[in-house]
Design goal:
heterodimer, A: ABC transporter involved in vitamin B12 uptake, BtuC, two-stranded antiparallel sheet, 13 helices, about 70% helix, about 5% strand, B: mainly alpha, ABC transporter involved in vitamin B12 uptake, BtuC, 2 domains, two-stranded antiparallel ribbon, globular
Chain lengths: ~350, ~350
């Protein structure tokens, strides 16, 4: 049903000097070169006039990258679950928020932030497991009803969380060794007396970005290099054949669902430490996961990473350069992707 | 009160006069709805009657898309909200922003037109993909619209939105009063209901149901599948837009809260609880949800209403995929029950109207 012509290179174009891949490579190189020049050079006035200031621009980029990391953590679980089970888990935002609350409680109780992070992952993994076994297994093969059930769960969960934790905003405190800001070796301006002003950025946010990258690589290795990963990939391609070849599909489903929910919980704790925990965040991160996955392509970890990068950057750049229209930018990206490539950037047509 | 209308035997007798054609259930229902103001207090008339009809209309636009087109949309309240914002901007409001004070017979059609066009655009985006993606895309659109309306003060007046929107005085009647407002809602709802019921048996309606059942085959036969789907979205937008105007007149205000994710899910809940197999379902669901909303305070307290409605919704989805209508069908002896959940896979389980037309 979906147009696949976009995913193939035009055979006629080959042999005529440059393939499409090479052309894209050159474009990417040029963009990267311009970007590196922008990061390390002293900005001329006209550039400052267009982009407000180098500091604003670089902060927006860094914030965008951090947010992209967070979005990737949330959306990777969403996309894994969808890819394997065709189950659009619209309660994914609720899992994020629940993880954040659980992480907050454990961090307060034990005094160790890392225990909060671990608890966020583990508790939510168990919750995901229970959801899979009690709910989704009963509705297997019925996509629409599964989705409706997740909507119902998200309504109930949001209300119960509001009842228990109230409408107040929580902040998960990061430990001392993660707090504070660090200077980056990037000069944003030179004062009149010749001293250079370096870009200062919160250390914790860099850690968020770093952990997202580490988890992303870990997930990629898990999917592409392990036996269970092979089962998951096989399940994404053809669930029935996987079951027919003797694999316990329910076991694979349960693992993936637990992993996806756990990642949402982990993202909740990590994101709740960087930003804040409040009712309504569930919807925000659900929207983020939806858009990231629609743009990046369903069921693909790489797609989730690319989508998160695009959406995170667009959101933060939009916030700086066109405030109040930032959401529209995200939306336009989604529409353009759907118009050009309905299955998403890395998605495969069915 | 509505169950009798579902009897397919009623619809088989199409060659009879209009009285028999309409069916005894419809006539009883119409009679009840017409004399309802005589029995009900103002509260029951507006807060229950009028509000149910308005919500039922919005849910009807969803039923039209989901039941006949196989496209479950979460953006119907967004479309209704678009009409509401048009009313606020071009009509009169108390917020001191815009409020051009145009007469109702200009801004009304304008609101419906803009809402239906918006619906068509959302539909055009959503039909790029199919099946379960539609839910995701429409949810993303609805959420994005909500955040945009909340952040944007230039056009939407941001978080507070617009206040003081009132139904106009026209034809010597004050349409804000309970009885005229109830009949206004009723008239609109009846027009929408009859249009959907009739439209489902029209050539277009049958084509749409065929597309729902087997898109590939329809495309192969030579139908423009995308155009049919987008047109269905446009029609749904007309209904949702009209309901949106009534909704802002009912509430007296429109704010981003009106088009938030909660209300948009609420519309889906109404449609699912009622049932997506027949246009009466959404209205049935709306009455149930509005009654629960009103009287849940006595059962679980006002704060925990969402838990109650969420649990009811879960139970309905689990035990009866066809909602209340499905429950009725289950206990009513009849051959070949079709369920809306099988519309994607089984081409032989046609829509309820398609079989009889």
């Amino acid at each position: 049903m979906v147009d696949t012509s976009g995913s193939r290179t035009n055979p006629l174009a080959q042999g005529q000097g440059m393939t499409r891949r090479q052309a894209w490579g050159i474009v990417v190189l040029v963009v990267a070169a311009v970007f590196i020049w922008m990061v390390f050079t002293q900005w001329p006035d006209w550039l400052n006039a267009i982009l407000i200031s180098k500091k604003a621009f670089l902060s927006a980029i860094l914030n965008g990258l951090t947010l992209a990391g967070l979005y990737f953590l949330v959306a990777s679980g969403f996309t894994l679950v969808f890819g394997l089970m065709r189950n659009v888990n619209l309660a994914h935002g609720s899992l994020y928020l629940l993880g954040a609350y659980i992480g907050y409680e454990f961090a307060e109780w034990t005094g160790y932030w890392l225990i909060g992070v671990a608890a966020g992952f583990l508790v939510l993994a168990v919750v995901g497991l229970v959801m899979q076994i009690l709910v989704f297994r009963r509705l297997e093969g019925d996509d629409l009803r599964q989705t409706l059930v997740t909507i119902g769960i998200s309504v109930v969960a949001a209300d119960l969380m509001l009842a228990y934790w109230g409408g107040t905003t929580y902040q998960i405190l990061t430990p001392g060794w993660l707090s504070g800001a660090i200077k980056l070796p990037v000069v944003t301006a030179v004062r009149s007396n010749g001293t250079e002003v370096f870009l200062v950025y919160p250390f914790y946010r860099l850690i968020v970005l770093l952990s997202a990258i580490v988890i992303g690589i870990g997930l990629w290795l898990l999917i592409n290099r392990t036996r269970i990963g092979a089962m998951i990939r096989a399940g994404v391609d053809d669930r029935d054949m996987l079951a027919a070849s003797g694999v316990n599909v329910h076991f694979v489903f349960a693992i993936v669902f637990a992993l996806g929910a756990g990642l949402a919980g982990l993202a909740g704790v990590v994101g709740g430490s960087a930003l804040s925990v409040a009712p309504g965040e569930d919807v925000r991160y659900l929207l983020a996961s939806l858009v990231v996955v629609i743009v990046g392509g369903m069921g693909s970890i790489t797609g989730a990473a690319i989508g998160a990068l695009i959406i995170g950057l667009a959101e933060q750049i939009g916030l700086v350069y066109f405030p109040t229209y930032g959401v529209v930018l995200t939306f336009v990206i989604m529409v353009v992707t759907l118009a050009i490539r309905p299955q998403g950037i890395m998605g495969r047509s069915q | 009160m509505t169950d009798v209308t579902l009897d397919p035997a009623v619809r088989r007798r199409q060659s009879r006069n209009w009285l028999e054609k309409a069916g005894i259930g419809h006539i009883l229902l119409a009679f009840f709805l017409l004399i309802y103001p005589a029995m009900a207090s103002d509260f029951f008339l507006t807060q229950i009657g009028g509000y149910s009809l308005v919500l039922g209309m919005i849910a009807l636009s969803l039923m039209l898309l989901a039941g006949y087109g196989g496209m479950v949309s979460l953006a119907q309240i967004t479309v209704a909200g678009a009409a509401g914002y048009v009313v606020a901007i071009f009509g009169e409001n108390n917020s001191g922003v815009y409020g051009f004070g145009w007469p109702w017979w200009i801004y009304g059609p304008l609101a419906i037109m803009i809402a239906s066009l918006m619906s068509a655009v959302i539909g055009w985006i959503a039909v790029r993909t199919e099946g379960i993606y539609t839910i995701m895309i429409t949810l993303a659109v609805a959420t994005a619209c909500f955040y945009f309306a909340q952040q944007n003060y230039a056009l939407f007046n941001g978080f507070p939105g617009y206040n003081g929107l009132r139904a106009p005085d026209a034809f010597g009647l004050n349409w804000r009063d309970p009885v005229p407002f109830y009949y206004l809602c009723l008239a609109n709802a009846v027009v929408a209901y009859v249009a959907v019921l009739y439209g489902a048996r029209s050539t277009f309606g049958l084509t749409l149901q065929a597309v729902r059942d087997n898109q590939r085959r329809m495309r192969a036969i030579g139908f423009n599948v995308t155009a049919h789907k987008v047109f269905a979205w446009w029609l749904a937008g007309l209904i949702a837009g009209a309901a949106g105007i009534l909704l802002v007149w009912f509430n007296g205000r429109i704010s981003p809260g009106t088009i938030a994710v909660g209300p948009s899910i609420n519309i889906l809940v109404i449609a699912i609880i009622g049932g997506l197999r027949h246009p009466i379902g959404p209205f049935l669901g709306a009455v149930i949800v509005v009654l629960m909303q009103t009287f849940a305070i006595d059962i679980v307290g006002a704060e925990r209403f969402n838990t109650l409605i969420g649990l009811v919704f879960l139970v309905i989805v689990f035990i009866s995929p066809d909602g209340i209508l499905g429950l009725w069908e289950r206990f009513k002896p009849q051959e070949g029950r079709d369920s809306w959940r099988s519309f994607k896979k089984a081409p032989n389980t046609d829509g309820n109207q398609g079989r009889n037309a």
